[in-house]
Every structure is written in structure tokens, then in C-alpha cells.
Design brief:
CATH class of the largest domain: Alpha Beta
Helix content: 25-40%
Number of domains: 2
Strand order of the largest sheet: 6-5-7-8-9
Structural class: alpha/beta
Number of helices: 6
Distance between the termini: 18 Å
Number of strands: 9
Length: 202
């Protein structure tokens, strides 16, 4: 099992046979001594039982979010709301910093506005998303804030290679919007991963 300390961001691996089964546990980071929660490892179903492969994202676990927004008011509101939802929130001042952060951390939610980094941020982040391994890309819910399209415009989202579109006028409803799209994203890939497993491709 690969572990990342949320305090100092140290990365290390624990052999699977040393991870407690069906029981959550705590591990002390060898670098900063922070306690890291380790989720329970579910026992494999016996022969004849329906095998269900859960999506790696669990709302029982603490997710990470990256906010790439230039406007101070919208940025502060997004950071506040996402933090209240229980996610670890980080911000990036420009696309270079965003890409550096994404190189070393997994962000389950990346929310960006069309004007980020003088309109250069979105193309650079999307290009990066399009080149990473799909098993990692599927873990990331990418949200674009743009005034050019309505919220939840699926065709626009497909065109821009993002998961969801949010119109700036709907920032007031950011919490229910994000709760819905994160759950939708998680459930979609749960079904997708189950289908891959049934066809022997996972």
C-alpha cells in the first residue's frame, strides 16, 4: 500500500501483508511523527460471491482539492466551502505552481476558472490531464468555471476535456454542486471499474 503523509507529504510503501485486514489503523509518519489514518483493507470475496471493486475515492477518507482561481472573492469562497466539505484544500498562484503540485500529489478535485493565470492556466492543466495515466486521471474530478456555458453543460465539458462545467453565477450554490458532482464522479467510475473487472480488463 502506498502512503502519503498529509502533513509533510512524505511518500512510503507498506507491504500489503502488514496492513491490518477489515480494521482501520493509525501509522506514525517516520519523518514528522504525524499520525496517518490507514483505511481497512477489505477481505477478498470467496468464490461464488459477487466481486465488487470499490472506486478508490471514499467519502469516509479525506480527499484533496486544488483550487486554481485568480479572482480573490471567488477563490476565497471556493476554498472556504471546499474546506467545510472536509477536503484538504490547496491553492496555486499560477499554472506553473499548479503543475508542480499535481506532479507530486493526487488531487481528487481540481477546480479552475477560465481566466486562471491570464487565460493560460486551463489549457496547460487540461494538457497535463490528457497525458497522465488513465487510472490516475479517473481519480480526478476536473471542474471548469466559465461564463461561456451553463452549469452542467455536458457537451461543453467534453469539448474542454473536463468533467463538469460551472457558470460563475452559480458560485452561490457551490457546495451542493460539488457534493453532487463528486458523488456522481465516484459512482460513475465505480460502475466503470466493476465493468472492467467483469470483462477481465481490470
Amino acid at each position: 500500500m502506498n502512503i502519503i503523509c498529509h502533513n509533510c507529504h512524505a511518500k512510503f510503501t507498506i507491504p500489503d501483508h502488514k496492513v491490518p485486514r477489515d480494521k482501520a489503523s493509525l501509522l506514525k509518519c517516520p519523518q514528522c511523527k504525524e499520525k496517518i489514518p490507514i483505511p481497512a483493507v477489505q477481505q477478498q470475496p470467496s468464490v461464488g460471491e459477487k466481486a465488487i471493486q470499490p472506486f478508490p475515492l471514499s467519502f469516509k477518507e479525506r480527499l484533496n482539492a486544488l483550487v486554481c482561481i485568480d479572482g480573490r472573492d471567488v477563490k476565497n469562497k471556493a476554498v472556504s466551502i471546499i474546506g467545510q466539505m472536509g477536503l484538504n484544500v490547496e491553492t496555486a498562484s499560477d499554472s506553473n505552481r499548479a503543475l508542480d503540485k499535481m506532479e507530486y500529489h493526487i488531487y481528487h478535485l481540481v477546480i479552475m476558472d477560465a481566466a486562471f493565470d491570464q487565460n493560460k492556466g486551463v489549457p496547460r492543466i487540461v494538457d497535463r490531464m490528457n497525458t497522465i495515466d488513465m487510472s490516475l486521471r479517473r481519480k480526478i474530478c476536473l471542474v471548469l468555471i466559465t461564463s461561456k456555458f451553463n452549469t452542467n453543460d455536458d457537451m461543453a465539458a467534453l469539448h474542454f476535456s473536463v468533467n463538469y462545467i460551472l457558470h460563475p453565477d452559480d458560485i452561490l450554490h457551490l457546495e451542493p454542486f460539488l457534493s453532487k458532482v463528486l458523488a456522481k464522479h465516484k459512482n460513475f467510475y465505480t460502475v466503470y471499474n466493476d465493468s472492467l473487472k467483469l470483462t477481465g480488463k481490470a
